[in-house]
Amino acid sequence: MLFSAEEYEQRLAAVRRRMRDQGLSGLIVTDPANMFYLTGYNAWSFYTPQLLYVPASGPMTLFAREMDAHGAQRTCWLPEEDIVGYPERYVHRPHIHPFDWVAFALRQRWEVAPAAHGCIGVEMDSHYYSPRAHRALVHGIPEWTLVDSFELVNWIRAIKSPAEIAIMRQAAQVTTAAMNAALNAVEPGARQNDVAAAIAHAQAAGTAEVWGDFPAIVPMLPTGEGADTPHLTWTDRRLAAGEPVVIELAGAHHRYHVPLARTVMLGEPPAQLQHTADVVAEALNEVLETMRPDVPVAELARVWNAVLARHEMVKESRLGYSIGIGYPPDWGERTISLRSEDEQVLAAGMTFHVIAGMWLDGIGYEVSEPVAVTATGVERFTDFPQNLIRR
Amino acid sequence: MLFSAEEYEQRLAAVRRRMRDQGLSGLIVTDPANMFYLTGYNAWSFYTPQLLYVPASGPMTLFAREMDAHGAQRTCWLPEEDIVGYPERYVHRPHIHPFDWVAFALRQRWEVAPAAHGCIGVEMDSHYYSPRAHRALVHGIPEWTLVDSFELVNWIRAIKSPAEIAIMRQAAQVTTAAMNAALNAVEPGARQNDVAAAIAHAQAAGTAEVWGDFPAIVPMLPTGEGADTPHLTWTDRRLAAGEPVVIELAGAHHRYHVPLARTVMLGEPPAQLQHTADVVAEALNEVLETMRPDVPVAELARVWNAVLARHEMVKESRLGYSIGIGYPPDWGERTISLRSEDEQVLAAGMTFHVIAGMWLDGIGYEVSEPVAVTATGVERFTDFPQNLIRR
């Protein structure tokens, strides 16, 4: 087990407290990050439907494809009898769904009844829970009233334990190795895909002490004119002198992610880019200095915008987001966003990717800091210089 | 544009014919592979909701997050006015969804009315279409009756054009480079993650002529006892002499995938493993020799099972699946599966990953062939020996 039995018990207890607060007598978890958080189950099996049922009390049950359920105990700490495989013949069939079978199995395992159970939460916006999956449960267990859990487990994950922070510090070593590999590979004439190859190698190799786990998102290298599209993936386009190259990547360890972004200028930076970099570094540091427990997230956006306004600059997208466990397609936790609309307040143990992505006319600039909120401020997970890097 | 305007027109016409056959006067596409197929749009932006609306006639409309819509034309051939960005403030908010905004925008762009439009197809089981997204459309456009499109575009994708086959031949060069990198890295004492690093490097680097695109699934290395769990991802466990190591990976080029699996024996293979490998090679070749247009898919399963039965062996899971464009978490197309329940018939231009994964007591063995169905048989995309590889 990656974490102690006590820590898994605490996680489950926290989830159940929140279930009670939301009026839920059961919870259906389909997000692989949430399954990993509660049971340790970890495999690239989420492309076929999976489900963890969390009742108000008693053991949880994990449902997965038969071939995956068979060896699930290699990562999942649930006892064998609580890991159930659905038959292979339900996979990728047009008019039946694995959850038709799972609904029946749930009926058999739990005496489903409206009075005893009431509302059951489902993750209405998780990446691996489709409308067809939802419909199978709605029709297969009509006694249950399924309601949105509103990222219930994700919210519990927002505050990390010391053991989780320790793993993120290890992930940060992978991040550092991957960013160094990127900085070494970036040069005029290099193909983007060769830079990506160098990064991908370092992301898996990690260091002699810390192995690299697969990242939830591939390295992003917005370059030159394409920098106006932050999520464009690489091709064999060659980097050219005079271009800024944005590098956004993450190191991962045991599914915990520490993302990092830097911008490399191949040659002499245009005055506007250097000015942007200076302003962003100033604003980013004011934000980091403001971060501590009890500060509202909205205050960070205010501080950031105030510095930018002094220099007559603006940034419309969010300034960062909560990070931790990640599976494709995202290493964000889909909970706290650093922006003025967010009503959350910082607490010790929260971890964020504070990212300033600026898209100017034809030029992209990004710099970020992955941090943990401590009792008195923030701990930076990596220590790269925060300014424009020149090559 | 990656393909000719004529090819994109043919794809859209084929989709619209199938829409008519299924009684649909509109189609909502959310699977990034289907969006890429119809519009060329390609970015790692699918972690926030995206939608392509395909009316029965007239221009398609692509909706994406504002920061992604802004530069979407770098990959998408739709005219600028048909690419619409939804505001950043809709991203990852608990009680609103981007499709609340998109539903309103669709109402404005298209005169939604039940009489004129009738049923609109939605991809009820696509990975990036959540129940919350579906609910936003149901409530936002009550005039539309949304029905399952049953992988409508995926089915059109099942038969590849010559231009698509040509790209898959290029992807196969990446596959070959990646498999060779794996075979070089696998040795007793090597950490699994270092083998994965070598593979990941080759997958992106490709060759001097063909760049490697990111694969939809990370390399799988089921080894030793863990080989009973086909989708377990790597750790820093060291390979040991006497173990079989399964390698399953894909090369990708312009999002088209050619997957391949081989098993490497570190030392002298146990008699049972060598016997399994021999039987599987025999069965696999009988299957490949059977493949040609007009042969029912179920016949392949019958041939396969007959050879295994002669040797008193069985395999329960499917023998392969349709391949082509892939995004995480899957490089399969979720249409044709090579198994006895499948009612499809082979046709020229179909492409498959024919994969024999055998899980014996404590030992895993996998070997596969990626192939295209030709007018007279099959074309193998790669040419690795089909037997157990010794190191």
TrEMBL record, chains A, B:
Q: What InterPro entries does this protein map onto?
A: Creatin/AminoP/Spt16_N, Creatinase/aminopeptidase-like, Creatinase_N, Pept_M24, Peptidase_M24B
Question: What range(s) does the Peptidase M24 domain occupy?
Answer: 167-374
- In terms of superkingdom, the source organism counts as Bacteria
Looking at the record, the residues that make up the Creatinase N-terminal domain are 11-159
Q: Which Pfam families match?
A: Creatinase_N (PF01321), Peptidase_M24 (PF00557)
PANTHER family on file:
AMINOPEPTIDASE, XAA-PRO AMINOPEPTIDASE P-RELATED
Spell out the protein name for this chain: Creatinase
